[in-house]
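Notes from hallway chat w/ T.B., transcribed later so I don't forget. T.B. wanted the structure written out for a chain they're using in a teaching module, and asked if we could keep both sequence and structure tokens in one place. Agreed to drop them here.
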Amino acid sequence: MGFDTAGAVASANLLVVRFGPELVASVFVAFLGTPEGQRALAAVRTGSTTQLITVAALGRIEVPVPPMETQRALGEFVTAATDNLAAEEHALALRRELTTRITERVLAGLDLAAVAGLDLT
């Protein structure tokens, strides 16, 4: 899955999870994003200020494991959906930036049609 790790810092509180051939990693990640997965994570978290999940606690989370063919299909779907969502979020950020820039220029006294490159004739 396309996770952005720019600026990430590895520390003693970071778990690296490697999966055997019986579970597709993106299916596990997708499960953790579901309400059931979030409840499972909440049940094994420790700490009040900084919440942690130990290796042992992570191992206690029961993950539904469909047949491999289903996992692969779900993994591809989740990856595509995540990539599409990232692209949509980027496009939305660009539209917000454009709206802000046009608003700033119009409020500074420029004509809206000229600023937006519109031909209103």
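Follow-up for T.B.: Helices lie at 25-32, 35-44, 55-59, 68-107, 112-116. Might be a good example for the class.
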